[in-house]
Amino acid sequence: MPSDLVSGPDLGGGYLHQLSRDSDGTTTTFTFHAQAGGTDANGPPIGPLDPFGFVRPPTPCMFGGPRCWHRRFLLPPEEALRVRSAYNRNRFVLDTMLRQAQGEVPVDIEAGLPLLVERLTAALDPEGIEWYIGGSTAVRLLGGSLAPRDIDLGSTRAGVDRIAEALREYLIEPLAPTDWPASGIVRGARAFLGTFHAGVRVEWAVPIEPREALPFEEWSGRPGVARRLAVSFRGRPLWVTRPEYALVRAAAAGRTDRLGPIAAVIRAQGVDRELLEALLERSKLPVGSRDAVRASTRPDKSDGSAGVPLEP
To answer: Which of 109, 140, 185, 232 has the fewest CB atoms within 10 Å around its CB?
Structure first.
């Protein structure tokens, strides 16, 4: 399959970037490459790219060298302009995203959430397409004292496409079949809402292969599967996923600093015990940690709890 360079070398976030295209005439793989650029890229970069879905290939990149990161997208050849637009925005906002990931600057939810809600309400609600906010931003919208790192969206297959169109100029990854390391092969996209210097990363995807959704699955792409709560944001009604999802996910990731604030929201809302048990059963948490998570949601648990002790 012939390969050619579409753009680069370009600069961004202390990295040298290239955009390549491999095509057999009917199918095209577009690849974002990035490698530490040193002084040529105002580097070194302040952090790695794996928080944004980039991976290191097992062999040196043709365009990126021996220590290259990359992201791949399978799209028709006529999508080249959209891919290049997302590639450019990604490198323009990369320094800000890296500084957010390293804790040097805060994630500016207020720079992106109002725009997100306005765009998606206008694009999806009139057609009755299900969409909702999950993760730490859902907990924040329910009154939790968390500082979200990004905004995770859930929707259907049709919704995923409409979200990408509604946020077209903010995309940092094109809508495409692609590999998300934590989720496998999905159809999804990412955007960065805000300015080059302040904003928030937004992610959404659905599984690429049709399959039966697990009970209460949060990101299945099927309507009516995830359990949600209604909230209001600046006078607009929104759906967010229940905080039990965020609690079990934080426990599984060892994020003990987040468990107390999430559990406090669950106690305020009232625990969905059926959902919590289903999520714990699917998790890889040891028995003792599961018991600690359950205990944190008891109504008599002090709201001042700083966290939940988990087994190593």
So the answer is: 232
pLDDT of residue 220: 92
Q: Quick: pLDDT tens for 220-266.
A: 999 999 999 999 999 999 999 999 999 999 999 999 999 999 999 99
> Greater confidence, 72 or 310?
72
Model-level pTM? Answer: 0.90
Give residues with Cβ within 8 angstroms of 218, minimum separation 6.
Answer: 134, 154, 226, 241, 245
Report d(CA 29, CA 285) in Å as an integer.
Answer: 38
d(CA 163, CA 157): 10
DSSP structure string for 233-283: ETTEEEEEE-HHHHHHHHHHTT-HHHHHHHHHHHHHH---HHHHHHHHHHS
The pLDDT assigned to 305 comes to 44
Burial of 293 (0-12, 13-18, 19+ CB in 10 A): buried
Give the architecture (CATH level 2) of 109-241.
2-Layer Sandwich (3.30)
Tell me the pLDDT band of 304, cut-offs 50, 70 and 90. Answer: very low
Q: Report which residue type is found at 63.
A: F
Please state, rounded to an integer, the average pLDDT across all residues of the chain.
90
**Where do the H-state alpha helices sit in the chain?**
80-101, 109-124, 135-141, 157-166, 243-252, 256-269, 273-282, 287-296
54 neighbors 71 (Cβ within 8 angstroms): yes
Q: Which residue has the tokens 């039966």?
A: 212
Please check whether residue 34 is in contact with residue 64, taking contact to mean a CB–CB distance below 8 angstroms. yes
User: 103-150, pLDDT tens digit by residue?
Assistant: 999 999 999 999 999 999 999 999 999 999 999 999 999 999 988 999
Residue type, 84: R
Cβ atoms of residues 17 and 32 within 8 Å: yes
User: Where does the chain hold its CATH 3.30.460 domain(s)?
Assistant: 109-241
Copy the structure tokens of residue 55. Answer: 């991976």
Query: Chain-centre distance of CA 100, in angstroms?
Result: 14
